[in-house]
């Protein structure tokens, strides 16, 4: 891909390699180090009801990556299919609450940054703008 993009550079948009590498290293670190987290996650997550798991994932995805939440949830032994669904649904519904919650969000920020005052996106403004779509997605996934 990189060779093709370089060979036909005049027909390509500039590649966002730095952000892609950061996401790739994050996900690689998650896979390498994530399995070591089961010892403390297992007792906590296995005691949660599916509804609590949904709202916990919805809230946590505002401060952590939703891929991390779902991957770490996959490490829990004996989790019911309903709890699995609620975990993924909560993480997906809350994915737009912050820039770090979803891997495409940093790429979107880098593309859209120039359109904002001071070339920065306010965390509060992002949260405020994402509130209505998040509630809509949460209701759709929950019911």
Mean residue pLDDT: 87
Number of helices: 8
Helix content: 55-70%
Broad structural category = mainly alpha
Give me some keywords for this one.
single chain; 143 residues; mainly alpha; 0% strand
What would you say this structure looks like, in words?
The chain has 143 residues and is mainly α. It has one domain. It has eight helices and no strands. It has helices at 2-7, 17-34, 38-46, 50-60, 66-74, 81-93, 104-112, 123-142. Helix 2 (17-34) runs parallel beside helix 5 (66-74) and helix 6 (81-93) packs antiparallel against helix 8 (123-142). The protein starts with a helix and ends with a helix.
Task: List the SSEs and their pairings.
Layout: H1 2-7, H2 17-34, H3 38-46, H4 50-60, H5 66-74, H6 81-93, H7 104-112, H8 123-142
Helix pairs in contact: 2-5, 4-6, 5-6, 6-8
């Amino acid at each position: 891909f990189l060779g093709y993009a370089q060979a036909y550079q005049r027909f390509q948009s500039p590649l966002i390699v730095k952000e892609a590498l950061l996401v790739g290293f994050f996900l690689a670190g998650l896979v390498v180090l994530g399995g070591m987290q089961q010892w403390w996650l297992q007792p906590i997550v296995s005691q949660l009801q599916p509804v609590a798991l949904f709202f916990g994932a919805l809230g946590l995805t505002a401060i952590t990556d939703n891929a991390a939440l779902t991957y770490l949830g996959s490490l829990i032994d004996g989790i019911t299919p309903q709890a699995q669904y609620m975990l993924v649904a909560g993480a997906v519904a809350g994915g737009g609450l912050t820039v770090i919650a979803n891997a495409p969000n940093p790429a979107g920020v880098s593309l859209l940054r120039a359109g904002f005052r001071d070339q920065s996106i306010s965390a509060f403004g992002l949260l405020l703008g994402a509130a209505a779509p998040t509630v809509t997605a949460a209701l759709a996934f929950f019911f």
